[in-house]
Design a protein that fits this description.
With 250 residues, the chain is mainly alpha-helical. Helices cover 42% and strands 7% of the residues.
Length: 250
Amino acid sequence: MKVPPPPGHELRFRETLLSTLGSDVYKFFFDRYLYHFFNEKDVKLLTSPGLNCLRIAFDYRHFENDMDPTENTLATDWTGFETLIPDGHGGHKKAGIFPNSAYSCHDYGVYGFPQSERYIGTAEQKKLLRDTYEHKVSFMKRNHLCIWNGEFSPVYANEEDDGPDWLAINVSPMDMLEYQVQLYESEKISLSMEGYRIPRNGLHPPQTHPGSHSSTTWLQKKQKLNLDYWGNRPQPDVVQVIQTHRRVDR
């Protein structure tokens, strides 16, 4: 029996859902998803602490086919924005710098991951965070553009993954986050955090929530096998196997 590839991107994800749910439930899921993905209750919750800007991940299909927003088409290659502007002669020209636009960076701190060096606020650690940020926004500063930090946040510890000391473990990433916010405020940039409904680095349902069962099981499997750098806690048995294979390869 041939094992299908894992759903590593949207096309495979949709194929997996279709084969698992069947055509009718699959279509029902995506039809209702458009109504429940983000609604008035989300707005009330997110504005309650004083947030004044939200980045909502609308799918590109919302802008392609209003009659069938679940149509499974493939996106154009958008890298570099070099094919987006017609040149008037049947071809395209480089877009250059878009006017009235905010250019975005993602500034995840290197000390914000479970397997990273612990952040204690040394001058060297702060310099690395500052230098990393400056590298990411160098294009915007060079061209006098508005800077938007679209994503930044550490991976937070939780009781299920990190045990009874999880609150103490979170002191270090929270200290790093505080320094980052101070840096952004001194730079007077706009920012948003990828922290809503994101497991392990934001506001999301607890693992005991019925809707979290499937994703929780998969996340636990990934963590056990040490498959992701992001969010994973080092697993000694897996690390030992990898190190053994590296010694054999050499």
